[in-house]
Write a structure and sequence with these properties.
This protein is mainly α. The chain has one domain. The chain is 61% helix and 1% strand. It has a two-stranded antiparallel ribbon with strand order 1-2. A hairpin with a 2-residue loop joins strand 1 and strand 2. The longest helix has 38 residues.
């Protein structure tokens, strides 16, 4: 269980010793492949734990991170008011794999996700600039946060229009430049190719989701291209038909929000509170969370490979994705069962043909529920008025 932690410490130790060439930062598991934010955060852990020697202290720190992460997630769920309270028990107590990822293996994935959930809390409070800053910080710890980026871009366009979202995107880009500047000045190509390598090959023996495929298919570039196309198609369909609720064309998102044709919101208690406190009303909070969580889930479904620590990428979002649509009383148990099967798939080591197929089936069921459960209600068609004159009653005659 110490393999990844020791490798992280070896990677940041080179930076602590003055190495600024990113290609020279390595550990027992191979070269450093994470952006600069990872280096700074784990450098702090390196010094806090006596150059990585006090692993017990590191586990205590990650236990605190686990509790903080739960607090941030619960705050998001309370703001949306979609998930029944008993589901939180499964989120806290029912996942051996998540506990292992946080407290036993000390991966960097939980660090990135905790920062991401903090950013989402800021989005819900209408603090978009600070939220974008923390979103970019999460990306600098691990690139999987980019799976949320299509949803965030949609929300920024929806909220600010094209010209208004440019400063927010500049905040994201500027932080990446500032964090990576020491390495960019020494070997810019080495830093960019190592920390943002989108074409990196994964080992077949660690895959959780594609075990049922032959290894030659798993490594085939055509298969990777097909997954990318499926991902883009899924994002396009959700953006057009599930995220975009206005009757206007989706191109209207490029306009200034004041110039769009939409009716003024009704004067409800939620909207009065939003005007007074600059906090999203309940329906707006649910929309923000739905767009971000579904954007990430589409990316997870189309990932070239999922390793065991990647479970934390979407574990805390699954209850919302399952309960974000209206649920009949008898439909709760199948959703709980679905969570249990997904957990079982992630706890099967090594993965098998059965476990990987089951995981894809569960992901497919969640996607179907998202697609049909969040469909806009059908328009009510009133029957056209009859052209025949109304019959005259005998009394009128």
């Amino acid at each position: 269980t110490e393999i990844d932690w020791k490798a992280y410490m070896q990677e940041v130790e080179g930076f602590a010793n003055g190495t600024l060439d990113y290609t020279q930062l390595k550990g027992d598991t191979g070269p450093l492949v994470y952006p600069a934010g990872f280096v700074y955060i784990f450098l702090g852990l390196y010094y806090a734990t006596g150059r990585g020697a006090d692993i017990r202290l590191a586990q205590y720190l990650f236990a605190g991170l686990y509790l903080l992460n739960l607090l941030l997630v619960f705050r998001i769920y309370c703001r949306t008011n979609k998930v029944p309270p008993y589901v939180f028990f499964f989120m806290c107590c029912a996942s051996y794999r998540i506990h292992s990822i946080f407290v036993l293996r000390l991966f960097n994935d939980p660090v990135a996700m905790a920062i991401l959930f903090l950013a989402i809390n800021l989005f819900l409070e209408e603090r978009w600039s600070w939220g974008c800053l923390l979103f970019s910080l999460a990306v600098s710890v691990k690139m999987n946060i980019l799976l949320f980026a299509p949803g965030l871009l949609f929300l920024l366009l929806q909220r600010f229009g094209l010209l208004g979202c440019i400063p927010k995107l500049c905040i994201c880009a500027l932080l990446q430049v500032i964090l990576g500047l020491p390495f960019l000045l020494v070997n810019p190509v080495g830093y960019l190719t190592r920390s943002f390598d989108l074409g990196r090959q994964f080992q077949f023996k660690w895959t959780v989701n594609w075990r049922f495929l032959p290894e030659e298919v798993f490594q085939n570039r055509a298969f990777h291209a097909a997954l990318l196309l499926a991902h883009l198609a899924g994002l396009g369909l959700f953006a057009l038909h599930r995220w975009h609720r206005s009757k206007e064309s989706i191109l209207a998102l490029l306009k200034n929000p004041a110039e769009r044709k939409h009716p003024s919101p009704p004067l409800t208690v939620n909207n009065i509170l939003w005007q007074a406190c600059r906090v999203c009303p309940l329906n707006a909070s649910a929309q923000i969370v739905f767009v971000l969580f579904s954007s990430n889930f589409l990316g997870v479904c189309c990932s070239r490979s999922l390793h065991y620590q990647f479970y934390v990428w979407y574990f805390h979002t699954l209850p919302y994705l399952l309960w974000c649509s209206p649920t009949a009383k008898l439909a709760h148990m199948p959703k709980v069962l679905l969570l249990g099967v997904i957990e079982l798939c992630w706890n099967t080591y090594p993965s098998t043909v059965c476990s990987s197929l089951s995981l894809h089936i569960c992901h497919g069921l969640v996607l179907l529920q998202l697609w049909y459960g969040t469909a806009p209600p059908p328009a009510l068609h009133t029957p056209p008025p009859s052209r025949r004159p109304a019959a005259i009653s005998k009394k009128a005659q």
